[in-house]
């Protein structure tokens, strides 16, 4: 082993020699791997000034050597070390839990040595870039006046618009089979997850077609004159999130998500956007196009407002996989404002052409810094004329 690697160590907590051997084999020549039977033995080693670049622990997230151990290590002053869990099976619930609790990464116990060898050094190098500060984890409390306004406004709107709901429901169902409403899990204020309702505006099965439309994603369009890449990218929307599809091997860094294959080949690409938006999307129905352009598809979110998931004005709640990518100090501030139906970036940019991901996130942060009830009323008044512009957001 190269002597330069002797100062770079990772710890693994496991009682299974096969798991320890697989991790050691994957990371040899990169890190020295120290094996511990439990977290207490690891703590003793760290008290003796042994420095670790990462801690891997084989246990379920809710197990004693999972999130509970991670929180203990943070209290002991080791929160600057990425905590990586080795669990039995990875699904949406596990990813969501890991994201909410601040676990740096999750792998299955059936160790993929090639993936581990690529991803662990990347996580170690970039961990400080995507760990939110303590301030961004404080829960946001909605002011009483804003909540009262939300209940009154949404309640009256739901009552007055009930005939419109009925007409749209009939039109949606008449054009294409499927449910009139759909919901996706969204991440709102303080990284809280809730069911986000809309009128269905796409044909059923639209999620299966998304992979064939990646080249149309407006947020993935590269600068003119730059050579296009044929590498796969991570791209997800509401439908992908619902279906549980999408890139399962993304590498995370500050304001960037890189497909593992791209990273291995050391290619620079701007194709890895946190958002997806397709112009003239062929998956959208005729009724869907109309209700999107007029924002009628958003009306069911009045129910989200009424029950307290959202506010009338705020930053748009994001699908799980988009929120998972926006956990950097630079942009996590957007989650310290209420989730809303309309907000600053919708009003500022609607109808004015394409908008970059950077602009959108910056406007979200600006709202989080400056929002007040008076500013919310101004944004509501500015939203009304924006609804009749052709650009849908």
Provide a quick synopsis of the model.
The protein has 393 residues and is α/β, with parallel strands linked by helices.
Descriptive overview:
The protein is α/β, with parallel strands linked by helices. It folds into two domains: 3-131, Rossmann fold, CATH 3.40.50.2300; 134-393, no CATH class. 40% of the residues lie in helices and 14% in strands. It contains 15 helices and twelve strands. The chain has helices at 17-27, 39-47, 67-78, 92-101, 113-130, 144-160, 162-175, 238-243, 260-264, 286-293, 301-306, 320-325, 344-349, 357-370, 373-386, and strands at 9-13, 32-36, 54-58, 83-87, 105-108, 181-187, 193-199, 250-253, 256-259, 311-313, 318-319, 340-342. A five-stranded parallel beta sheet has the order 2-1-3-4-5. Strands 7-6-11 form a three-stranded antiparallel beta sheet. A two-stranded antiparallel ribbon has the order 8-9. Helix 1 crosses helix 5 and helix 7 (162-175) runs antiparallel to helix 10 (286-293). Mean pLDDT is 75; it is low at 1-5, 129-137, 222-250, 252-257 and 264-272.
Task: Quickly list its features.
single chain; about 400 residues; Rossmann fold; 2 domains; three-stranded antiparallel beta sheet; 15 helices; elongated; disordered N terminus
What oligomerization state is this entry in? single chain
Shape: elongated
Query: What's the β-strand tally?
Result: 12
Rg result: 23 Å
Number of helices: 15
- N→C terminal distance: 54 Å
């Amino acid at each position: 082993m190269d002597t330069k690697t002797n100062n770079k160590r990772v710890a693994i907590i496991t009682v299974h020699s096969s798991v320890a051997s697989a991790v050691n084999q994957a990371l040899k020549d990169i890190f020295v791997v120290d094996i511990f039977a439990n977290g207490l033995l690891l703590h003793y080693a760290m008290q003796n000034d042994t420095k670790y670049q990462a801690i891997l622990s084989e246990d379920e997230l809710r197990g004693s050597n999972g999130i509970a151990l991670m929180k203990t290590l943070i209290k002991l002053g080791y929160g600057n070390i990425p905590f990586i869990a080795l669990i039995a099976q990875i699904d949406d619930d596990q990813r969501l839990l890991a994201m909410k609790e601040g676990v740096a990464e999750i792998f299955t116990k059936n160790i993929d040595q090639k993936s581990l060898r690529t991803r662990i050094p990347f996580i170690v190098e970039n961990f400080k870039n995507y760990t939110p500060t303590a301030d961004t984890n404080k829960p946001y409390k909605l002011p009483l006046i804003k909540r009262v306004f939300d209940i009154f406004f949404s309640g009256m709107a739901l009552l007055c618009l009930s005939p419109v709901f009925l007409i749209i429901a009939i039109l949606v169902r008449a054009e294409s089979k499927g449910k009139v409403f759909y919901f996706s899990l969204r991440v709102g204020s303080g990284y809280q997850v809730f069911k986000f309702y809309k009128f269905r505006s796409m044909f059923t099965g639209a999620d299966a077609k998304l992979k064939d439309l990646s080249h149309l994603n407006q947020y993935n369009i590269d600068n003119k004159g730059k050579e296009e890449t044929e590498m796969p990218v991570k791209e997800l929307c509401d439908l992908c999130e619902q279906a549980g599809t999408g890139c399962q091997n993304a590498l995370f860094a500050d304001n960037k998500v890189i497909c593992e294959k791209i990273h291995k080949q050391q290619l620079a690409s701007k194709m890895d956007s946190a958002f997806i938006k397709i112009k003239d999307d062929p998956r959208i129905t005729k009724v869907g196009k109309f209700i999107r352009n007029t924002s009628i598809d958003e009306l069911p979110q009045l129910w989200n407002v009424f029950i307290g998931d959202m506010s009338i004005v705020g930053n748009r709640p994001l699908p799980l996989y988009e929120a998972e990518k926006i956990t950097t100090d630079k942009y996590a501030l957007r989650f310290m404002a209420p989730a809303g139906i309309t907000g600053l970036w919708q009003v500022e940019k609607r109808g004015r052409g394409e908008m970059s991901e950077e602009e959108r996130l910056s406007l979200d942060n600006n709202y989080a810094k400056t929002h007040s009830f008076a500013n919310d009323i101004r944004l509501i008044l500015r939203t009304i004329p924006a609804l009749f512009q052709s650009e849908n957001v």
